[in-house]
Amino acid sequence: MQTWLNTSAAPQKIGVLLFDGFSNHCLANTMEPMRAANTLSGKALYDWTFLSLDGTAVASSSQLPVAPHGRLSDFTGDMLVVMPSYGFLGHAGWRTQNALRAAAKRFDTVCGMDTGSWLMAEAGLLEGHRATIHWEELTSFAERFPDVNAERERFVIDGTRVTCSGAMAAFDLVMFLIGRDFGQALALEVAQLFMTRESARSHEGRATPAGRVVNRALAVMQGHLEEPLALPEVARAAGVTQKTLSVRMLSELGATPATVYRRLRLNLARKLVVDTDMSVAEIALRCGYQNPAAMTRAFKVEFDKTPQTLRAPE
């Protein structure tokens, strides 16, 4: 069976450094796609820890208090996400600079969300790098840090330095990372969960022609989960040949149309198992399986659990 993503690796350890005045919106758009990726894959792809400089509680711009898991100096990981948002200039002193410089040696990648780029630049972590920041600060950022190549982009990935321009762009960035690291098929599932097609956007934010074809085919598949269409019919509805659809889905999603279609049906089955008290037989019919045993076998192959096991209390 063709796999959609690499689930054998250890979870990516993400440290999220919060400051007083951080944006709830930015935090949610960063963490919820990761949480969804874990849920939909059935694997711990991401393991995150909330941090502050000294381990004490911080409050968001709307005064939502967060008690971090610990202080920055005690943690290492794959990526440090720096999230000051509002009032960032008040956090840009020597204490923060020293802490970020030290953390950059313990985390493989440092990512500045929203105005986090400014704190990274003050710490000297963006010298000679391409970077972006919230559009309201871009001109000041470019003037203050002439050794940084400031760009007006939603997000910029330059080696081990990642920067993002705001809360909405944070979602785009995390979706891009999910697709890059764990496969476009999983990114597609996460996008569907949030009722968006952001996973079809490229790094520059433009949908490719192949993306439009794949999206048309996905829409057809989604509309025919209970009574699945033959793949030639799906391709015809998408306006291409079956061979063209296969080539484009393999390129865009890393999976064949048959694999994608089956996964969509089984995702619905999993949702119905978890969220309803429908019988397995009824769920099978809702997902295009005439034989409940056939659905159970396919379910077990995809999710390593039978519907009954998934539904059973821990």
Enter the CATH topology name of the largest domain: Rossmann fold
- Relative helix content: 40-55%
Q: State the separation between the terminal residues, measured CA to CA.
A: 29 Å
Radius of gyration: 22 Å
**Which sheet architecture does the biggest sheet show?**
7 strands, mixed
Which series of helices and strands comes N to C? EHEEEEEHEHEHEEEHHHHHHHHH
Domain module count: 2
The CATH homologous superfamily of the largest domain is called Class I glutamine amidotransferase (GATase) domain
Strand percentage lies at 5-15%
Beta-strand segment tally? 11
* Tally of alpha and pi helices: 13
CATH architecture of the largest domain: 3-Layer(aba) Sandwich
Give a short summary of the structure.
Helix content is 46%, strand content 14%. With 314 residues, the chain is α/β, with parallel strands linked by helices.
Describe the structure in your own words.
- The structure is a single chain.
- The protein is α/β, with parallel strands linked by helices.
- Helices cover 46% and strands 14% of the residues.
- It has helices at residues 24-41, 94-103, 116-122, 138-144, 167-182, 184-193, 209-223, 231-238, 242-253, 257-275, 280-286, 292-303, 307-311; strands spanning 12-18, 46-52, 58-59, 65-66, 70-71, 77-83, 107-112, 130-131, 149-150, 155-158, 161-164.
- A 7-stranded mixed sheet has the order 5-2-1-6-7-11-10, sandwiched between helices. It has a two-stranded antiparallel ribbon with strand order 3-4. Strands 8-9 form a two-stranded parallel sheet.
- The two termini are 29 Å apart.
